[in-house]
């Protein structure tokens, strides 16, 4: 029993460390996105003019470097998310885990969805963030299953973060996918260009 409890505690400490690493990388991604914002460019905006020459109004080399860093860090986040899933499954597979503060903390980072994306408009901020119809929201900025009450909270968070990156985790094909969503004005309605429906527990 003592050895099992020690193994469980060790697994939990490992999980917390991995989550900490992912949080650090997420913060670095947000800082890099802010650097792009200062240059008035996005991750997908062309860096050449209509004639195919590098744009003279931006630092093309610096932007390419920042974009590369963001892509690498997003890949790192995906790998850490995969490891977090594995650690969570391992912890929950322990047959004799008893309720404790540690177990409650693990449940807080579990991936239980609270809303579903059932519409994504073309060329919208949601589509640019790679949100897809059928995605299940498990994290939307500070919102998670444990503190989500209604869609008004989502709307409030969006308006408070207009033109600022929001970290979103979605459950897609049994995998948790980290995304960066930037609410902004566009040619359609609202700041996201998607429709979100809350998931009501039966």
UniProtKB/TrEMBL annotation:
One of its GO terms (cellular component) is nucleus. Residues 18-93 form the Nas2 N-terminal domain. GO terms for biological process: proteasome regulatory particle assembly. Residues 117-170 form the PDZ domain. Pfam families: Nas2_N, PDZ_6. Gene3D superfamilies: 2.30.42.10, 6.10.140.1710. SUPFAM superfamilies: PDZ domain-like. Keywords: Chaperone. Belongs to the proteasome subunit p27 family. This is 26S proteasome non-ATPase regulatory subunit 9.
